[in-house]
DNA sequence: AATCCATCCTGTATGC
DNA sequence: TGCATACAGGATGGAT
């Protein structure tokens, strides 16, 4: 499922295909995929038509394409100054969203929701398509607002000092050079909840979903129900360090895919699922315990209405755990 | 005020 | 074979 590494793979894949290209027209095939655009389909299309994509930026699992007005772009070419971007096309992949570059001749995907026709560019596909089976994801146009802390962060090369309004409540992710562990730890301790719930809270630390939460907790040898308000600094540090390491590894592998639901912009799957240590391994031996000569089996439990995978030996449940 | 959780969706797998 | 149920889960808004 798309978490930080998968979204970053999409961002990197997308940027060279769409930067500098103009959106010539837009087909909204299923309005449910733009339900977060409150002003409706016509307004959505009107905002995009004629605009030029200046970049692809990410914060947590939110991805957006800052837009430059077509006429402003023309003027900028004349005086050599880049016009300020004030709106962006926002995308969230949700559970099953895909952003695909496709040639015009490629038949519609079964769950094609929105199609952007881009200005022709030599050797590049003509369309950017949003495909989404479960419709948890979506597209919408949002205002860009100033940030006073150096821009949206993420891993973009040169992000504008502006952030999409709907992403301004999202914390920085552990791979962001501006991520502050001290601030994270301070806010973590102030919460009275369980550790995994906190890890999944995008306002505290972003980019982590169910898969990488379980992987980071396993790697740090911490149980998901450990109380946040008592967690030692060293444990919290190891947890963030683990999240960072596992997500960097996943990024190198092109992301995690279990099926064709998550693919990069070319339709290819990542292969990080082969490297998972906890997630999806119910009944299989814990690799770390096995290496130490101990017999232990990964356990699956229902938690927050979804599955959590832990090793009962090296991630012992706390006595006063919090859900 | 902080925390929690039902809800939005559809395709696939499994059970009876 | 067919029908029913469980499951996958990110973000949000309303409830507690």
UniProtKB/TrEMBL annotation:
Pfam families per record: Fapy_DNA_glyco, H2TH
Residues reported to bind DNA: 111, 134, 191
Residue ranges of every copy of the FPG-type domain listed in the record: 277-316
Domain Formamidopyrimidine-DNA glycosylase catalytic: 2-137
A GO biological-process term: base-excision repair
PROSITE patterns: FPG_CAT, ZF_FPG_2
SMART domains associated with the record: Fapy_DNA_glyco, H2TH
Alphabetized GO MF terms: 8-oxo-7,8-dihydroguanine DNA N-glycosylase activity; class I DNA-(apurinic or apyrimidinic site) endonuclease activity; damaged DNA binding; double-stranded DNA binding; zinc ion binding
Co-factor: note: Binds 1 zinc ion per subunit.
Coiled-coil blocks: none
Enzyme Commission designation: 3.2.2.23, 4.2.99.18
Catalyzed reactions per annotation: Hydrolysis of DNA containing ring-opened 7-methylguanine residues, releasing 2,6-diamino-4-hydroxy-5-(N-methyl)formamidopyrimidine; 2'-deoxyribonucleotide-(2'-deoxyribose 5'-phosphate)-2'-deoxyribonucleotide-DNA = a 3'-end 2'-deoxyribonucleotide-(2,3-dehydro-2,3-deoxyribose 5'-phosphate)-DNA + a 5'-end 5'-phospho-2'-deoxyribonucleoside-DNA + H(+)
Role, per record: Involved in base excision repair of DNA damaged by oxidation or by mutagenic agents. Acts as DNA glycosylase that recognizes and removes damaged bases. Has a preference for oxidized purines, such as 7,8-dihydro-8-oxoguanine (8-oxoG). Has AP (apurinic/apyrimidinic) lyase activity and introduces nicks in the DNA strand. Cleaves the DNA backbone by beta-delta elimination to generate a single-strand break at the site of the removed base with both 3'- and 5'-phosphates.
UniProt cross-references to PANTHER family, sorted A to Z: FORMAMIDOPYRIMIDINE-DNA GLYCOSYLASE
The name this protein goes by in its record: Formamidopyrimidine-DNA glycosylase
Species this chain originates from: Pseudarthrobacter chlorophenolicus (strain ATCC 700700 / DSM 12829 / CIP 107037 / JCM 12360 / KCTC 9906 / NCIMB 13794 / A6)
């Amino acid at each position: 499922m798309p978490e930080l590494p998968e979204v970053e793979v999409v961002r990197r894949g997308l940027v060279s295909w769409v930067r500098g290209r103009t959106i010539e027209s837009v087909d909204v095939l299923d309005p449910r995929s733009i339900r977060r655009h409150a002003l409706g389909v016509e307004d959505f299309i009107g905002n995009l038509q004629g605009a030029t994509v200046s970049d692809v930026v990410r914060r947590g699992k939110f991805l957006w394409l800052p837009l430059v007005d077509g006429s402003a772009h023309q003027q900028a070419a004349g005086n050599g100054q880049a016009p300020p971007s004030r709106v962006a096309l926002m995308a969230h992949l949700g559970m099953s969203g895909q952003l695909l570059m496709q040639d015009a001749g490629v038949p519609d995907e079964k769950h094609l929701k929105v199609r952007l026709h881009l200005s022709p560019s030599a050797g590049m596909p003509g369309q950017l398509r949003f495909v989404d089976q479960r419709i948890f994801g979506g597209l919408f146009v949002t205002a860009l607002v100033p940030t006073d802390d150096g821009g949206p962060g993420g891993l973009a090369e040169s992000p504008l000092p502006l952030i999409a309004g709907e992403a301004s409540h999202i914390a920085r992710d552990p791979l962001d050079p501006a991520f502050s562990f001290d601030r994270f730890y301070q806010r973590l301790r102030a919460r009275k909840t369980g550790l995994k719930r906190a890890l999944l809270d995008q306002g505290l630390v972003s980019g982590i979903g169910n898969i990488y939460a379980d992987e980071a907790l396993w790697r740090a040898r911490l149980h998901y129900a450990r109380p946040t308000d008592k967690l030692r600094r060293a444990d919290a540090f190891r947890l963030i360090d683990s999240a960072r390491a596992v997500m960097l590894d996943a990024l190198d592998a092109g992301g995690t895919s279990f099926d064709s639901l998550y693919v990069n912009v070319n339709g290819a799957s990542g292969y990080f699922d082969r490297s998972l240590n906890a997630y999806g391994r119910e009944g299989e031996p814990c690799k770390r315990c096995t290496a130490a000569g101990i017999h232990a089996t990964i356990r699956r439990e229902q938690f927050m209405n979804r599955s959590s995978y832990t090793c009962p030996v090296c991630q012992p449940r706390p006595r006063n755990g919090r859900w």
